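Residues determine shape. Take a concrete instance:
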Amino acid sequence: MKKLLLPLIYACLTTAAFAGDAKPNIVIIFTDDQGWGDVGCYGLENGRTPELDRMASEGIKFTDFYVNCAQCSGSRAALMTGCHYQRISMPMVSWPTSSGGFHPTETTLGELLQSGGYATACIGKWHLGHRQGYHPIDQGFDYYYGIPYSNDMTYDPELVRSENILLREGWTKKKLDGNKQGKWKRNQVPLMRNREVIEFPVEQKTLTKRYTEEAIQFIHEHKNEPFFLYLPHTMPHKPMAVSKAFEPGLGDSKKGARGLYAKVLEEIDWSTGQILKTLQDLGLDENTLVIFSSDNGPNHGSTGGLRGGKATIYEGGTRVPCIMRWPQSIPAGKTCREIATTLDILPTLAGIIGAKLPNDRKIDGKDILPLMKSLPGAKTPHEHYALLYKGGCVRSGKWKYYPFNAAKAKKAKLSKDDPRSQAPVQLYDLSSDLFEENNLAEEHPEVVARLQKAYADLKADIKKNARSRGE
């Protein structure tokens, strides 16, 4: 039914949107737990990312780019639908035992572009529902290759196995069949091609390399038609792993997990370089929009000094690196310091390809193409960017507001005499206090009142208008 409705949801594509040019190819590279400070051009200290740095020099770097949730599934749901994850009733994290995902009537990036004549592929970590009805193939992707959720999880015996499944680490088909109600070992996850498990447990050291190979093959196969490649990397989420070519050597200055983390970042960077090289070799790079970002702040990487990290509402949890390259339309060497978010990707791509968004449901994102193109005077379309995650926050201009006391924040570890813990709410001027150390809530009650209203309005709207989740 969903696929039958798509032609009714979208209007015909307008040729005016392209000004005579072909539709752009679109590549979104989305890493897992890579922090704001985990890219060279954002201040990376432990490791090297020359390909991403070059990508930024040939495109645009966003300094104030936000996700919608500082955990896996909520963040990815917002990217895929342009909606607050609470609006579509998605959890922060889905599990191997989870039976649903966002509702099949929601419009995804895959469906938006598929309806516009694009070949679509998701290669990597999905984590938005892996059973019938919620799998990438059910959500607008022609092809899927990857692990269905986080690499520290387990196996779901409800998954369909390939007849030629590769079983490793002592597993057999008989053992799998006999363990349906048993305990599964963490970090042993399945690798899928389309709807079937083809390897269990997957060799995690090879994931980044194999994703890259699959992505390049997809580009080659669809070089003569518009394509959308969604490449959500498994790394640098724990357990971290790299292929043999990137294993930490004896000469590394930093050993242990930190040394491995640097190598994981380097392999992701290498992968990005391989994608860009393939586009160039095929003569596709001028009219291909490549977006690189991360799903949330780091678990063990660098926030670049930002407060908090993964699973926190502070800047280090929700502000992530974002680089965009599209030589035909994005001028080189630009930096955007305006507020932009993952919610904005879907409506922006709709505008780029001339597709109309569904008019029977609210989309929270905004079109940020003027920011991407660095047009004169371009400003963020977000007067307020409010989140309901983990106590909530509102970003508006230079201000960042939290409607709760700092001393009560999880993982804050503030002493009673810390100046951040005195006021009942928190307000920071990020233009002069990027690391959120000086709470100005008591000095600017008018700003607090304005941002509290923005937060309360969103909360009331979501409570009233949240859409049901698929089960």
Notes: The radius of gyration is 22 Å. The first strand starts at residue 25 and ends at 31. Residues 2-11+24-372 form a domain with the Alkaline Phosphatase, subunit A fold (CATH 3.40.720.10).
